[in-house]
Write the structure tokens for this entry.
Amino acid sequence: MTRWGPRPMLSKAFYKAHSLGNDYLIFEEGSEWIATPDKVLEICNRNHGVGADGIVVLLGELQKSLPQLRMFNPDGSEFERSGNGLRILAAYLYQEDRVSDAPFEVTVGGDLVSMTVHDVQDGIYDISAEMGQAKVGPDSVGLNSSSLDGSGRILGPNGSRLHAIPVSVGNPHLVVFVSEVSNTLLESLGPFLATHSDLSNGANVQLVGPLSGNRFEAAIWERGVGPTSASGTSACAVAVAAVWSGRINPGAIMVDTIGGSLEVHVNAELEVVLRGPVTEVYTGTLT
């Protein structure tokens, strides 16, 4: 038994879609294979399996009469939530005629998330997800506050100190504002911070460039994944950190990644709504 409970048994049928290149597989609970770490790793592998940045499982048992989800990283580990994974699940439910264009709720990690399918054209969906109220600070991400110096900086590579803003959007993030975003810097800081010894369960990492209008450029290193073209909760964390630190006023914020742009609306109470495209790829069945 893990902190997540026993691994679910699933159907072999799947649905694949992506948001700005960040792709997920949707499986429903069934009786054909067990989502063990090794099996999840194999199926998400882009050479030996279907290939994906993760798996979203739609459980057969409802929670409070609502669809209940579990999510798995491509390294086989389980995690709290994915903003893009949630919106891909919404596209799946919509094309299966299980939801309409009215707002609907699902449960993930014990939390309620409301989503809306605003439009769909040629297999491309416009979907928003109300991600709830974000939290900021060491305790929100399981970061040992005693590891921070007097200026709130965390230990970085080679003994350096970094001002990383801890943000929880239902899962943990460390947001680092930098003068210039680069792959070299991401390769150095991403894996170090994602598995930092002072974190209780790791974190997703975002390197964020200076503000331009209402836009921020971001590079993302996801816990259990590595560098990704886009990430819904990472975009939310960037916007929350920017508002919380006074870099931008509450409102609509665009987060640009190598995959494209996601819109994040953050209010003064740090309540977050994520909106962006979801593109269908294909459906299939494992052999």
Remarks:
- The chain has two domains: 9-130+278-285, 135-269.
- Residues 9-130+278-285 form a domain with the Diaminopimelate Epimerase; Chain A, domain 1 fold (CATH 3.10.310.10).
